[in-house]
Design goal:
Number of strands: 14
Largest sheet: 8 strands, mixed
Radius of gyration: 21 Å
Number of helices: 14
Strand order of the largest sheet: 5-6-8-7-11-14-12-13
Structural class: alpha/beta
Shape: globular
């Protein structure tokens, strides 16, 4: 039996048997959204202690560096305690929303009706996991000599990390690996990844056709399937995996990779959103996906990870301010890529090395790919909206899926061209 058929039968069986607990949906009625800023190390320590000491405050930003804004969603009963604490520490703060649920509801985040993905899959709406997987299965049937279903690993709840290999040539070509959705609530990332798949298969633009014809693509739209399902069924703001750790659940799968694991920019508390896990590769998702990537060693020359939000393009390292030995080449690719991303809609990206451009963050997938797998070009996109966005943030309106994806593809075209020019695909 072919690999495609094995994966197809296994997937269909899984979709039929995996039961999703119909837990009550998490709501944030009357929760307040605050933005705070630590101006010194003492104030930063107060916010760090707060992050790890209560589950009544959801931190939307990591608490890592002095001077960086930190957004917090605060339960109504916790507001007086928070304001007293911030006042005593003389931490400046700003109220941005009196009702976080109402703020979220104002965003038109259209989700497709389940079961119709094969008939009318488009990028004017978001899709649940099962529909995206069904669509990918359909692609493997429509393009049997081009699209191959691949399994990058498994999840704690037994789901497949399903991807596609796109190869329009029978000969071996340089490889590009793209993963998205490792943080569950960042819906635009998987949507953009599927848009890239569709364009590689159908675009008539010479620049995109060259991407499809000259490279082998390995694309995984959902690197954290359990978490993504949970954002649809229970808590839209869920970020982590769903592995149970005492009374809390999940580890941050982008702090769990075995490269300078948990050295900086991560938490050792299981209840925080940046929990690094009890050990490197403690999560079956990261462990199994890393094993798949390792099986491709020597075949992958460019690694791309899609996240949201802030409109950044980032490259190693996250654990240190020390720069890669080929940083001058990274800068050339970075310059070409962010210039291209702005051409269509004038969208402005910034970025640089992870540690300095955004915040310290050890244990990320791009660092692991670069540091252990000899992938000499590895980048992370933080997609729309900008870091100044208050009302949208992780909930990007469905109307922005296509423009966000189009400008991303423009950028990737430029990125691949510059990486090729520098000789990394040779």
């Amino acid at each position: 039996m072919s690999l495609n058929k094995c994966l197809l039968f296994g997937l269909l069986g899984l979709l039929a048997t995996v039961g999703v607990s119909q837990a009550e949906r998490v709501r944030y009625d009357n929760y307040r959204l605050y933005k705070a800023n630590a101006e010194n190390e003492a104030q930063l320590a107060v916010l760090k202690d707060l992050e790890s000491s209560t589950d009544s405050i959801l931190f939307l930003d990591g608490v890592h560096i002095v001077g960086a804004d930190v957004k917090m969603v605060v339960a109504p009963h916790k507001v007086p305690d928070l304001l007293e604490l911030l006042g005593k520490a003389e931490i400046k703060y700003e109220l941005q929303s009196k009702d976080f649920q109402k703020t979220m509801d104002e965003v038109d985040e259209k989700v497709a009706i389940k079961g119709r993905a094969n008939e009318e899959h488009n990028w004017e709406q978001y899709y649940e996991l099962e529909d995206t997987y069904s669509w990918m299965v359909t692609l493997s049937k429509q393009y049997p000599h081009v699209v191959t279903l691949i399994e990058g690993g498994k999840t704690y709840q037994g789901r497949s990390i399903l991807g596609v290999k796109i190869s329009k040539s029978l000969s071996e070509k340089p490889g590009i690996f793209l993963e998205a959705g490792i943080h569950a609530r960042e819906w635009i990332a998987p949507a953009a990844a599927t848009f890239i798949i569709q364009q590689l298969l159908t675009s008539n633009l010479d620049s995109v056709k060259q991407l499809a014809e000259n490279y082998n693509w390995y694309v995984f739209p959902h690197a954290n399937p359990d978490g993504y399902v949970y954002t649809h069924t229970t808590d839209r703001m869920w970020r982590k995996t769903r592995t149970p750790y005492g009374s809390c659940f999940g580890a941050d799968p982008n702090r769990n990779w075995a490269f300078h694991w948990n050295e900086v920019g991560a938490s050792s508390s299981a209840c925080t959103d940046t929990y690094a896990g009890p050990s490197a590769f403690s999560e079956i998702e990261t462990e199994s996906l890393s094993e798949y990537i390792a099986s491709l060693k020597g075949k992958i020359q460019l690694y791309i990870s899609l996240h949201a939000y802030s409109q950044y393009l980032l490259y190693p390292y996250g654990h240190t301010g020390d720069l890669p030995d080929n940083v001058e080449d990274f800068k050339k690719v970075f310059d070409a890529s962010i210039a291209a991303v702005s051409q269509r809609y004038n969208t402005k990206y910034t970025g640089g090395n992870i540690y300095d451009a955004i915040y310290p963050a050890a244990g990320a997938s791009v660092d692991w790919a670069y540091g252990t797998q000899d992938v000499r070009m590895a980048f992370c996109y933080e997609l729309r909206p900008s870091s100044n966005s208050i009302l949208t943030g992780f909930k990007l309106p469905a109307a922005q899926i296509i423009p966000a994806s189009e400008e991303l593809l423009d950028s990737i075209v430029a990125m691949v061209g510059e990486v090729n020019k520098l000789g990394y695909f040779s």
